[in-house]
Amino acid sequence: MQLSRMKNIRHAPIIQFLSQVTMPEDVISFGQGIPFFEPPFEAVNAAKKICSKPQGYQYSTDQGFRDLRKIIAEKIKKEQKVTINPDTQVMVTAGANQAFMNILLAISQPADEIIFFTPTYFNYVMAAKMIGCKPIFVSTDSSFQPDFSDLKNKITPNTKAIVTISPNNPTGAVYTPDSLKKINKLCATHSLFHISDEVYEYFIYDDTPHISPLQFDSSLSHTISLFSLSKAFSLSGYRIGYMIFPEDLLLDVLKVQDTNGIAAPSPSQAAALHAIPLGDSYCKKFFPILKRNRNHVQNIFSSLSMIHSTWTKGAYYFFVNIDSPQSSWNLAKRLIEKYRVIVLPGQMFDVEYPSFRLSYGNLSENVLQKGLNRLVEGLKEIC
């Protein structure tokens, strides 16, 4: 039997990595990128109430509840000062990952090139490869900001889109408005799409408002923005997100949505109806704990000679370089098996130098301290 296209796609890296270790019973994980807090009560309650009603157990329209799309359009208008049409420029999806796959299928041909900045978000790179596109990696500087010289050199006649993630997973970097504007202008100049992941839009720690590239594309001709409720509202298990896109893509996006999932889960859409109007006020109630965790991790890292970390402004990640003769993969495996602490190796994120991603968003302060103690002990002995 002929092998499928999946033969040349990497294994899901977290699953592959964890399958190779002997997992201690009392391991502490800095791996998964989820927040420690629970979802808003009103969102969960709305999902419960609708489950026994036809609107809750039947398909919605492919684009999602119209009331929800109107709320999304109102949110974009309020926060980004951009007017969008809820009937032709909004689609509700089963998370941002589905939105990314939907939009790539709608805009690309096999062998098209999709530009990603390194370190990358591996699920997006895998999605591009699955549909026959070619990922192109562009470097970032020591603060994980885009390297524009490298970017300009990597644009070719085969380039279809440039992907930005800000605030960034896996680095926590927040791209400057000037950088996002330059990228958006490059896309306009070269007739490319600018795909903007804004999943961590509310997780910025210096009180700087989130800037969406939607602001730089007044006619919404080439900018696509992806959002999720998994982080700010802790609804990762509900699989709910949405995307904003140029109107002329609607019919093609509908083809993909109808084939690939039909519609986002109706109870999850009901939850989103009650979560999105809360804006950033819900997750910012938990910022004092997140900031303390963030500061504590940075203080620990700055005291370790083998660690080189960048003080980024967003999400809830540190991506650090390590002075070590070992590969990231082997180092992370030893940290789990001997020191009972999980970090994700940099090789998952398409960098080869020794490095790892640490998430501080999913732990209480006490567990965070315990995990850091183990991590420091391991790094001092291994490195």
Spatial separation of the terminal alpha carbons = 47 Å
What is the approximate shape? Answer: globular
Oligomer: single chain
List the uncertain runs: none
CATH topology call of the largest domain: Aspartate Aminotransferase, domain 2
**H-E order:** HEHHHEHEHEHEHEEEHHHHEEHEEEH
Helicity, as a percent range: 25-40%
Number of helices: 14
CATH class wording of the largest domain: Alpha Beta
Summarize the main sheet. Answer: 7 strands, mixed
Please give the domain count. Answer: 2
**Mean pLDDT across all residues, rounded?**
96
Strand content: 5-15%
What is the CATH homology-level superfamily of the largest domain?
A: Type I PLP-dependent aspartate aminotransferase-like (Major domain)
Q: Based on helices, strands and strand pairing, what is the structural class?
A: alpha/beta
Question: Can you count the beta strands?
Answer: 13
Under the CATH scheme, the architecture of the largest domain is 3-Layer(aba) Sandwich
Characterization of the model:
This protein is an alpha/beta fold and 383 residues long. It folds into 2 domains: 5-30 and 286-382, Aspartate Aminotransferase, domain 1, CATH 3.90.1150; 41-279, Aspartate Aminotransferase, domain 2. The protein has helices at 13-19, 41-50, 54-57, 66-80, 96-107, 122-130, 148-154, 177-189, 250-260, 266-275, 281-284, 287-302, 328-339, 365-382, and strands at residues 28-29, 90-93, 113-117, 134-138, 159-165, 193-197, 223-228, 241-244, 307-308, 317-322, 341-342, 344-345, 355-359. The strands form 3 sheets. It has a 7-stranded mixed β-sheet with strand order 2-8-7-6-5-3-4, with helices on both faces. Strands 9-10-13-12 form a 4-stranded antiparallel β-sheet. The protein has a two-stranded parallel sheet with strand order 1-11. Strand 3 (113-117), helix 6 (122-130) and strand 4 (134-138) form a beta-alpha-beta unit. The longest helix is centred in the last third of the chain and has 18 residues, at 365-382. The chain is globular, with a radius of gyration of 21 Å.
